[in-house]
Every structure is written in C-alpha cells, then in structure tokens.
Amino acid sequence: MSSEPISEPDPSGLVIYVGQDRAGHWLVQDSMRTLEGRFISYAAALHYAQAERDIHHASVEIADRPLTPVVSFAAVGRDERALPRAA
Length: 87
Prior knowledge:
Layout: E1 15-20, E2 26-30, E3 36-39, H1 42-56, E4 59-62
Parallel strand pairs: 1-4
Antiparallel strand pairs: 1-2, 2-3
C-alpha cells in the first residue's frame, strides 16, 4: 500500500489511518492511538474513517505499512475474567 491522502491535512495534525495489520485485518486508527476499529473490508474501514474524519476534523490516509493493533484480538484466556455486564 502507498501513503495516499484522501482528504486535506488538518492543521491540528490529527490523522486517521486505514490499513491492515500483519494478519490482514482491516484497521482504522488515529495518530494519537485513541481511536481504533476493526473491519471486514477496506470499504467498511474507509467508510468509518471518513465519518470519523468529519467528527474529529482530521485527515484520512492509507497506511503505507502494517498497523499494530492497540486492542488485542486474541481470545480471552481461561485464567482471565470477563468484565461484569451492566445491569
């Protein structure tokens, strides 16, 4: 993938990246690593990134190297407890 701008750069510098991790999952992450989403297709990831761009007044770019997930996609281990459900 090449780094290909999709929108004009934002003066504040926030960038939302669309790309894949090393396992091939489509991810959307922001440059501050506070936003992350996992998607089934490039089109779904891009659609989400463009909506978030409008909310956060950011720019969207295609990642030129694999993204590293912030949130693990590994299954919860037997010794780990699930979070309690809200009532």
